[in-house]
Amino acid sequence: MDKVLVIGAGFMGGGITQVAAQAGYAVHLYDSKPEAIEATLKQISWSTEKLSVKGKIKDSAKAVQDRISVVNDLSIAAQCQWVIEAVFEEEELKKQIFKDLDERCKPETILASNTSSIPITRLASLTGHPQRVIGLHFFGPVPMMKLVEVIRGEKTSDEVFKKSVEFVNSLGQYPVKVMKDIPGFIMNRISGAAFREALELVEKGIATVEDVDKGMHYGFNWNIGPFEIADNAGLDTYMRVGKAFQALGAGNISVSSDLLEKMVAAGRLGRKVGKGFYDYTPDGKMIPFDVTSLK
Asked: N or C: which end of the chain has fewer CB within 10 A?
């Protein structure tokens, strides 16, 4: 059985851990914050039990949970076939992690980043084996969203790219192959354009958040609208990604607005904190929030 190490126990790292365990992999989860680990394990327990009751996973919730083990450092990386970095979007932190992993891992271990904005080539440049570095950009909530962008860095080998596509398929996800390492990759460039327009419409009082989301659902068959997508990803994440794009000289695709800044300043970061463009009840129900009340 292949072993997977996931670094980062936040919203994305927890979701990646869950789908890998559901697919039969032995998963090691690392985070420097014990409270993040505790919260993520609780969320995985709740999610797998619900999915098991609905018959959405082939194994019992306990069997999935038993495949997950918590580690206190990165030494286990030497024993893993896959290492997936899923820390928050800070380039220097990610670079340090990749430099550390390159020294710990066997040359054949595949090192992946869940970054949504930082070029894979820049992360790979900190390693002595850039051919084994790949981007695996999952979309959240990972157990519900079946999309993963597989991003090829400038020096990613054909073999690693092929294996990464196969790995994503093994998770029951759909791999969108990104053949060139460009800022924003593919899906964020498309969804970002929609979100920028949606923000402007709401800021100008032309439409409400709920109507934009419902309109995209009923009119264009989106499962969820741009504001609910933003809540799932985290509004602070959107702001960090926007700054990363600007630093890369790709400010034209960054998402920024007064409304977004007000939301973040008010602590309305999205589903992960129970409030964003919507308020979220403990059982997951969404309640529209009046964004015009923000000053």
From this structure: C
For residue 290, being part of any structural domain is answered with: no
State the total domains in the chain.
Answer: 2
CATH code, domain with 88: 3.40.50.720
pLDDT in tens, 120-159: 999 999 999 999 999 999 998 899 989 999 999 999 999 9
Given 149, 191, 228, 254, the catalytic residue: 149
Region for 8 from its dihedrals, namely left if φ exceeds 0, alpha if ψ lies in -120 to 50, beta otherwise:
left
Structure confidence at residue 153 (pLDDT): 97
Could you say which of 116, 191, 232, 254 is catalytic? Answer: 116
Tens digits of residue pLDDT in 27-36: 999 999 999 9
pLDDT at 243: 83
> Hey, how many other C-beta atoms are within 10 angstroms of the C-beta on 71?
16
Q: Is 273 helix (H, G, I), strand (E, B) or coil?
A: helix
Q: Angle at CA 233, nearest 5°, toward 279 and 22?
A: 105
Based on the residue annotation, tell me whether 228 is a catalytic residue of this protein. Answer: no
pLDDT at 19: 98
Q: Domain range holding 236?
A: 187-284
pLDDT at 68: 98
Check 52, 137, 164, 254 and give the catalytic one. Answer: 137
**What is the percent of the chain with per-residue pLDDT over 70, rounded to a whole number?**
100
- What radius of gyration, in Å, describes the C-alpha atoms of the chain? 19
124 and 204 assigned to the same domain: no
d(CA 9, CA 12) in angstroms, rounded, equals 7
pLDDT over 80 at 44, yes or no: yes
> From the centroid of its chain, how far is CA 122?
19
CA dist 211 and 201 (Å) reads 11
217 is catalytic: no
Query: What is the pTM assigned to this prediction?
Result: 0.87
Active site residue 47: no
